[in-house]
Structures are given as C-alpha cells and as structure tokens.
Amino acid sequence: MQYSIWLGTLSAVTACFVTIGPFLLAHYALGGTLHSTHFSTALGLLALWAGLEGALVRAKPTLVQDAMPTRLPYLIMVGIALILPSGLLESSLRLQAPTVLYRFGIGLCSTGCAVRVLAIQHLGTGFLDGITIHKQQQLVTTGIYQFLRHPSEVGLHLFLWGYLLVINAWWVLLATLLVLLPLSLYRCWQEDQLLLQHFGDAYLAYRKSGAG
Q1: Contact yes or no for 59/3 (Cβ under 8 A)
Q2: What are the pLDDT digits (tens) for 20-48?
C-alpha cells in the first residue's frame, strides 16, 4: 500500500510551525525582531501549498508493479521539513527583503504552486510518494508533461526558492541549491531509469520529444 506524498507535505508544514516556535521565542528574548508582513506572507504561502495538495491528492491503496528501492524521496521530505523553519529563523535575524525580491519571491511561489498542482491533477492516482509504478499505470505525455518530465519536482523547487526569497533567507536558499537540488535531480534520474525500464521505447521516444 502506498500513501500520498500529501502526508509528507503536511508533516513538513507542521514541523515548520512546531519547530520555529521555540527558536523565535528565544530570539525575541534576546531582543530580535521579525518582519510581520513577510512572516505572514510566508505562512500564508505554506498554507496555500499544503491546502492545494490536500485538496488534490488522496491516500489510496495501490498495487505496486515496479519500484525503485530507495529512501531518497523521504530524505528529500526531511530536508524540506528542515528548510521551512530554518528559513524563518534566518529571516528573524536579517533585515526585511527588498520589495523587488519580495514580489519576485511571491511570483516564484505562485508559479511553483501552479506547476505542482497541474502535475498532481494530471497524473491522478499515478502520483505516489515513492519511485514506483502501479498496475495499469499509463505513460502520461499530455498536459504539462508535454513540456516537463518532472513538473512536480520543478514546482516544488520554484515554491521553495520563492518562499526563501520572500523571507530573505539567503543562507538557507544556498543550502537548498547545494544540497536539496542535487538530491532532487538524482531522484529524477532514478525515476527516469524506472520509467525507461517499464515503458521501454515509448518512454525513450517521449524523452527525445523535447520534454525537459
């Protein structure tokens, strides 16, 4: 039985709210400040992300036909659970983000949410938490998958980068680019290998069609 990645997303957002509390209380006790508008925007964006995924994805039992034996998706989710509160903590120690970067960050978050929502909606029950293929799964090459082979990963990273720009958390953004991005790229490579093994020439033709 496979459970939706929505459960991991909910855990990551919950970890953000729970973990950041003690850090912020300690920071306030030392005389620190937090930019309320940007902080509220960041939490609103997190709620939007979690809400959209919760509305679209359902945890359903599926019969797995093929799978890549790896814990990488869960490792990435742990990374996200650390990034969210760490970004807010760094934000509380910095000056407010410039207006241009703040607005650009909101744009990235919105774009990331839209891309991820389209990916989840179009893939339907094929959207699973692990690198797996369930029985009767079809190769999806339409919709947003005409242009991107891994749109859910692209949407996730656009959202995270935008979120960190909104709260002006540059060091956490750098860590995201240096650690989480390579892990996600490797996850995409693993998924490519599984799809190529399962769908053969059909997936090879799809990959050569120009989808990034």
Answers
A1: yes
A2: 555 555 555 555 555 566 777 777 777 77
